Automatic annotation (TrEMBL):
Reported function: This enzyme is involved in nucleotide metabolism: it produces dUMP, the immediate precursor of thymidine nucleotides and it decreases the intracellular concentration of dUTP so that uracil cannot be incorporated into DNA.
EC assignment: 3.6.1.23
SUPFAM superfamilies: dUTPase-like
Protein name as it appears in the record: Deoxyuridine 5'-triphosphate nucleotidohydrolase
Keywords annotated in UniProt: Hydrolase, Magnesium, Metal-binding, Nucleotide metabolism
UniProt cofactor(s): Mg(2+)
Amino acid sequence: MSATALKPDAQPELTVRIKRLAHGKDLDLPRYETALAAGCDVRAAVTEPVTVKPGERFMTPTGIAIAMPPGWEAQMRPRSGLAAKHGISCVNAPGTIDADYRGELRVILINHGTEDFVINRGDRIGQMVFAPVFQAVFEEVDELDETTRGSGGFGSTGK
């Protein structure tokens, strides 16, 4: 079967419990804008327009809290349209929302553009992607195995 023949109903299902907070009651819940979208859009739950000046950050409320099953995380990512059109991104992209966090989801937006950016109530401000999580078991050793690369990093491959 080709990749284009896959249907959304063939994907594994993940149930995420969601709670609307008082200041988000009238807003749309996160939703996927296309059938095969990886991220679902989240909206700004600001009570009045907020202006983010170039170089400034704003921790944008979403008016929702979520609960995921153990072994999963949500990643908050920038929306490509905001980045391309206005220079708006997320400071800690992707931001991790752990399975045991129950507080309000917030999106830390930064204005990398040259003009003020206004966040209005209900604006789509980020996209949330869900991913499995594996916790490592650490084994302390005296030596690590050798590789061709060794300890080279930060441009050591010439690229």
